[in-house]
Design goal:
CATH class of the largest domain: Alpha Beta
Largest sheet: 5 strands, parallel
CATH architecture of the largest domain: 3-Layer(aba) Sandwich
Number of domains: 2
Oligomer: single chain
Helix content: 25-40%
Number of strands: 17
Radius of gyration: 20 Å
Structural class: alpha/beta
Length: about 260
């Protein structure tokens, strides 16, 4: 089994390669390739020599010279792809719709194992999933006009369902149910099923997935500090107050989002 690794962060690539070798010790790893251009060159070179495509691709989305979707627009691989990303907006909007596996950084071993289990089921005869069709649909979705996002949300207040405007939302947080925290400090219960659902509904220029539990509004953030571990500590404006933690893997994406707004 040949697995192609496309990843521009050396430490992430090293960790991912180690996890793959633990799960599939007999696999032959190619890469890591760090850029769109190097990946395109790899496919051109191998197809010229009549070498087959890899059996599986593990592909980061954000690479040193662009996004990996540009690879697949030029090179239509015949094998399944498991995407990895620290950018939730790519993952949720693209892959949830098209049933293509993705791993959200930091990569958990159990999640990688689940993705490989799906691949093995497909390889052993469950061909109900046409990965090439999914990839084509995915690229079409990514090229489609921007969707409209929700700017008003509903929540429970006393016995009523009340509207909460986007500019009054500090953040959403998951703790068995999804809570909406308003900018004046109210904690309201919502009927949303998951943060994934909410992330698909909210404008990524306004909201960002701070971590697996929280989706925060840019306008509720007072600032952030860098932690010695590489994480970021985000402070929220009063009267909500408090802090949220951004993982080391998501720190660069958060800084870019925070600066661009």
């Amino acid at each position: 089994m040949t697995i192609l690794l496309i990843e521009d962060e050396p430490l992430v690539a090293k960790t991912l390669a180690r996890l793959v070798r633990q799960l599939v010790p007999e696999a032959h790893l190619e890469g890591p390739l760090e850029s769109v251009q190097s990946a395109v060159d790899w496919f051109v070179r191998h197809r010229t020599t009549e070498s087959p495509d890899p059996d599986l691709i593990l592909s980061d989305i954000q690479l040193s010279d662009g996004v990996s979707f540009d690879i697949y627009r030029e090179i239509n691989p015949k094998c399944p792809i498991i995407f990895t990303t620290a950018y939730d907006e790519y993952a949720i909007r693209a892959f949830k719709l098209n049933s293509i596996d993705y791993l959200l950084k930091p990569i958990e071993p159990d999640e990688l194992k689940t993705a490989f289990d799906k691949y093995h089921r497909w390889k052993q005869g469950d061909r109900s999933t046409d990965f090439r069709d999914q990839l084509r649909d995915l690229l079409a979705d990514m090229s489609a006009p921007s969707k409209k996002y929700k700017h008003r949300f509903t929540a429970h207040y006393l016995r009523n369902i009340v509207p909460v405007n986007e500019d009054n939302v500090a953040y959403f947080c998951r703790d068995e149910v999804i809570y909406l925290f308003t900018k004046d400090g109210q904690k309201l219960v919502t009927d949303y099923g998951s943060l994934d659902e909410l992330e698909d509904l909210t404008d990524p220029a306004v909201f960002i997935r701070a971590n697996r539990q929280c989706l925060v509004n840019l306008n509720a953030i007072a600032g952030y500090q860098s932690h010695y571990s590489g994480k970021l500590i985000v402070s929220l404006k009063k009267p909500v107050g408090g802090e949220l933690t951004i993982s080391k893997e998501k720190a660069a994406a958060f800084r870019e989002w925070f600066e661009e707004g």
